[in-house]
Amino acid sequence: MSERLEDIAQAMVADGKGILAADESSGTIKKRFDSIGVTSTEENRRDYREMLFRADEAMKSCISGVILYDETIRQKAVDGTPLADLIKAAGSIPGIKVDAGAKPMAGFPGEKVTEGLDGLRERLQEYHKLGARFAKWRAVIDIAEGTPTWGCIKANAHALARYAALCQENGIVPIVEPEVLMDGPVATHDADRCYQVTEWTLNTVFDELFEQRVLLEGMILKPNMIVAGKNASSQAGAEEVAEKTVRCLKSCVPAAVPGIAFLSGGQSDEEATQHLSLMNELGPLPWKLTFSYGRALQAAALQAWGGKPENVAAAQRAFTHRARMNGLAATGRWTAELEKAA
Ligand code: 13P
After folding, report:
1. Measuring from each residue's beta carbon to the nearest atom of ligand 1, which residues come in under 6 Å?
2. Which of 197, 239, 256, 283 is the most buried (most CB within 10 A)?
3. Cα–Cα distance between 327 and 272 in angstroms, integer?
4. CA-CA distance, 322 to 262, in Å (whole number)?
5. Which parts of 35-178 fold into alpha helices (H)?
6. Cα–Cα distance list, 167 to 16, 24, 138, 256, 258 (Å)
7. What gap in Å lies between CA 24 and CA 174, rounded to an integer?
8. 220 beta partners
9. Which helix (H) or strand (E) is 296 found in, with range?
10. What pLDDT was estimated at residue 118?
């Protein structure tokens, strides 16, 4: 495969394909495993992820890349094959989460700033050797009374841009992820407030990317959709989410960016798919619109697996179904009938 940043970025958003976010940190994967009564041991984490990466049909036809966690990119399958090689064998690209998490921001009560720039160059060089050709850094912006503040948005946008520049210096495509949360501690805001904060955040992020000389053709944006907070008194309908999200992105994201791969953020599996499909139906658009889902791609497979080897085939079928539905959505061809026909 070509090593040019532009070519890697294009491959990440190839027609009908999207990204599997399987980069849950140790704390997050423990929560997921707790929900199915499975202990989060290194072996169980390996078995679960190996199950996903060996779901050949899903991986080959719908998954352009997989975001891994530090532990996973170093792990080997039961037969000794590195997990990153399983991904490559399926024609998909291994990626790596490189941020060190969102930490309380000094002087900004209730807000967070993502850490992880120190030593990042050296870590990127090692990850490149381990096979990673793209990376992810997630900033979180929470909406509540009086927040977000300019100081928090600016600090997070600056860190994202510094990260993106370092990735590109080392032959790695940065996924730039500024997530305006729908499931923060308050989360009573409506979709219009989400629009306002997302627009503010994205404009600030693209200013910083320009100042840090980031090549837009060699990056992928991973934003939230424009939705109301999960505790809001009224939720936006699917058409409204699609229309507002596309309008917001058109006003903030330069056409030089090859693709936008959404996070699911707490939406149900089917909502995340439907929203993506409706947005693609609003085309033509200047960039590809696809998925980089964690929960919305894995929830059904995780349930079906339940930590039992005898459930591997059923879990792979569940994952393949979601991957196929989202693959269709990435070209605006998903329908509720296809969802049920499976
Ligand atoms: P969700 O789709 O579960 O929000 O996860 C995507 C992700 O990678 C968040 O950083």
Report:
1. 21, 138, 177, 263-265, 293-296
2. 197
3. 12
4. 15
5. 42-53, 56-62, 70-73, 83-89, 120-129, 150-169
6. 26, 20, 14, 18, 17
7. 18
8. 175, 259
9. helix 295-305
10. 98
Choosing from 96, 264, 276, 290 the residue with most ligand 1 atoms within 8 A of its CB, the one to mutate for a pocket test is 264
Q: Which two tokens stand for residue 8?
A: 């890697």
**Dist CA 37 CA 248 (whole Å):** 40
Reading the block at residue 17, the tokens are: 């394909």
Tens digits of per-residue pLDDT, 42-82? 999 999 999 999 999 999 999 999 999 999 999 999 999 99
Query: 118-150: per-residue pLDDT in tens?
Result: 999 999 999 999 999 999 999 999 999 999 999
Task: Give the chain's length.
Answer: 342
Coil, helix or strand at residue 76:
strand
Residue of minimum CA distance from atom 5 in ligand 1: 294
Those residues with Cβ within 8 angstroms of residue 192's Cβ, 6 or more apart along the chain or in another chain:
none
Structure tokens belonging to residue 71: 């532990």
Tokens encoding 207: 């200013």
How far is 117 from 174, CA to CA, in rounded Å?
Answer: 13
